[in-house]
Design a protein that fits this description.
Radius of gyration: 20 Å
Largest sheet: none
Helix content: over 70%
Number of helices: 13
Shape: globular
């Protein structure tokens, strides 16, 4: 029952929010772009940071014109990171922005869990619930829309009518567990789901994806700490514009 213009406008808005949120990191700013005085903003911008992020974004946009065998985001990450660390040898990190820094996922998980459940009392729980309810409702709505859209996209590839109710129930159960563990919420991923749908005969692909992600984050966190913030900003901006490009024509129509 969700009208297409509403869905298209909603997803376009999310895409624009992603682009705006990454404008500061792309420019090399240490705080949100809205916290700076516009008259002195130019002096805070790091041109090298902008160049590195632009290289990563350009790789994502241009690669499909030459090859479709390599995932554009992976290529953008590799090219951008290589350009960053090459430039850092000559100009230093101060001129081209910083990296993600040390990542200790297990320690972070333990800290978050202790903060979430350590000082819990009934009054504090009620106060936190009232404060979080509007945000939780919005995230739940976005997650349900994402699950529905992903299911519809997968059905176009597989030719099988999706069971969206089952997808939303599984997603909701997963998010209840994530909330109890003080983890980030989860939702369906269109790129990963489409890749799995194109290889529907091999069930190891959708089952192996979260396992590979867990191994990378858990055991190769030091490598992730080398990822430049400018490169991530460039990649996320391409994701935001892809949402706008996919849904904005529907809004205009």
């Amino acid at each position: 029952f969700l009208p297409h213009p509403v869905s298209a406008g909603f997803m376009t808005g999310i895409g624009l929010l992603i682009v705006w949120s990454q404008a500061g990191p792309l420019l090399g700013l240490e705080q949100r772009i809205s916290s700076y005085d516009w008259h002195g903003l130019g002096a805070q911008v790091k041109p090298g940071n902008v160049l590195i992020g632009t290289v990563a974004a350009a790789t994502v946009w241009l690669l499909p014109h030459f090859s479709r065998r390599i995932h554009p985001l992976i290529a953008g990450l590799a090219v951008g990171a290589t350009a960053y660390h090459g430039a850092a040898l000559f100009y230093g990190p101060g001129a081209i922005g910083a990296t993600l820094g040390p990542i200790s996922p297990l320690e972070m998980a333990q800290t978050n869990l202790a903060m979430a459940w350590g000082p819990v009392t009934l009054p504090s729980l009620l106060a936190a619930a009232l404060h979080a309810l509007p945000y939780a409702a919005f995230i739940a709505l976005q997650a349900m829309m994402s699950a529905a859209l992903t299911s519809a996209a997968v059905s176009e590839v597989t030719g099988i009518r999706p069971n969206i109710n089952r997808a939303i129930i599984a997603q909701g159960a997963g998010n209840v567990l994530c909330g109890a563990l003080a983890a980030l919420p989860i939702t369906a991923s269109v790129p990963q789901s489409m890749a799995a749908a194109h290889h529907a005969a091999n069930r190891a692909i959708p089952l192996g994806t979260p396992l590979v992600l867990l191994l990378v984050v858990g055991f190769f966190g030091e490598l992730l700490s080398l990822v430049p913030i400018a490169v991530l900003a460039g990649l996320l901006i391409t994701v935001g514009f892809s949402l706008v490009g996919r849904w904005a024509p529907g809004v205009l129509a």
